[in-house]
């Protein structure tokens, strides 16, 4: 057997895991709460299922339609709703992460379009490794 084989094999494995990092995520239920014209903020929600064998770390969100997009978490602290910025979101192998009202969300600031019910736009999810994932979000009143 060729002595170089294990090294070559590991190299291939590394390339394969890189290529599938963000793509391992299956996004469903991607929606944004409708906001009246002039609203400066909006929140986006989604379910992210990691079908890969590795943890996927979502590090940021990009959008051409908003001035900024950040990962946030709402929590009740002493009866008060508070939001904090999340530097990243991890989805374990085979796990589903739910970003839903009252919890994790994408905080969208400075919309460059009116968020009318039924309209759609794209957000791009950036992961620690692999290709960015562009997801179409639909504007709705509620999650149903
Ligand atoms: Cu927020």
Notes on the structure:
There is one protein chain. This protein is mostly beta strands and 144 residues long. The chain has a single domain, classed as PCu(A)C copper chaperone (Immunoglobulin-like, Sandwich), CATH 2.60.40. It contains one helix and ten strands; from the N terminus they run H-E-E-E-E-E-E-E-E-E-E. It has one helix at 5-20; strands spanning 25-33, 41-50, 56-62, 66-77, 80-85, 89-91, 96-99, 104-111, 120-127, 133-140. Strands 1, 2, 3, 4, 5, 6, 7, 8, 9 and 10 form a ten-stranded mixed sheet that branches. Strand 1 and strand 2 (41-50) form a beta hairpin. It starts with a helix and ends with a strand. Copper (II) ion binds at residues 72, 83, 105, 107.
Précis, in short:
It is built from 1 helix and 10 strands.
H-E string: HEEEEEEEEEE
Low-confidence spans: pLDDT under 50, at least 5 residues?
Answer: 1-20
Whole-number count of domains: 1
Estimate the strand proportion: over 45%
Major sheet: size, sense and barrel closure? 10 strands, mixed
Give the helix tally: 1
Number of strands: 10
Taken from the alpha-carbon principal axes, the silhouette is globular
List all distinct small molecules, including ions and cofactors, that are bound in this structure: copper (II) ion
Oligomer: single chain
- CATH-derived architecture: Sandwich
Write down the Rg: 18 Å
